[in-house]
Every structure is written in structure tokens, then in C-alpha cells.
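It is worth pausing here to work through a concrete case rather than discussing structure prediction in the abstract. The textbook approach is simple: state the sequence, then state the predicted structure, then interpret. We follow exactly that order.
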Amino acid sequence: MAERPDRASRDGWLTSLFLRIAPVIQRAPRWLKAPLIGAAGGIIVTVLRGSILLVSSPANPKNFGLFLLALVVAGGAGAVTGVVFNIVRIILRRLSFFGDILTGVTLGWTFILVVLLQAKFFFGDDLLATAGDWRVSFYIGAGLGLVGTILYWYDCWRYPS
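Step two, the predicted structure:
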């Protein structure tokens, strides 16, 4: 008689990974939870995006090295964003609806800015060479923050505590 597979093996590798990471984050001190969640989120998104790019690009060891570097950059950007969340949320919590929007936009800006500044200063990328580049990065960050805020609201509506 075959054994019934456990939940992690039925749901896939991403769910399995999340189920292993979540208890570690829950046991962390309160001030450390947001940076850990930010780093984990940045890494997970980079793994998903990087896997697609690695499969679709020609086989080259340099591409895998860049993928690993992107994991470090995204994890660092997520952790910095988590630290900013700890600071900004205390201030903006009192503004209710508008505080949520401002928090989301600020976090989107922070994440994009940290990624682009790392690219500029550590890797010699010239993405932030003009004032237009800065404006576009702020628009993208604001959009990312608004999407994150809407997802947060949906989660709060769907699973009220």
C-alpha cells in the first residue's frame, strides 16, 4: 500500500521552501521579521525570474555567476527595505488608508533604489546617469509599492484576523 504524500511534496518546491522558511521567521525577534521577510521575498522573486532567464539564455557559466550575484543583491535590497519598513510604519501607521499607501510607495522606492544604487556603485552600471533615469526609477518603485499595498489590502480582506 502506497503512503500518502505529505503536503510539501504535493504542493511543489516553492511551497515546500516557504514552509521551511516561515517557522524561522516566526521565531525571530519582532524587529528582525520585516528584514527577513524582505530578504526572502527578494530572493524568491529573483529565483523565479532568474530561473526563466537561465533556461532561456545560452549556456554560459558567466550567466550563472550573475544569477548568484543577483540573489545577493535582491536579498540585500529586501533586507534594507525591511529595515525601512520598521522605521516608516511607526510614523505612517496613524494615517490609516493614506499611511498604507505612503508606506507601500516608500518601500517600493527603497527596494528599487537599493538595487539600482548597488548596480551603479558596485557593478559600474549607468542606469541612474540622467534625471530621467531617476524619475523612471521612482515611477517604477511607486508602482511596485502600490501593487504591494493593494495585495496587502486584499490579503487583509480575504483573511481577516
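Step three, interpretation. The helical segments are 7-11, 13-27, 30-56, 61-92, 96-123, 131-158. DSSP finds six helices and no strands in the chain.
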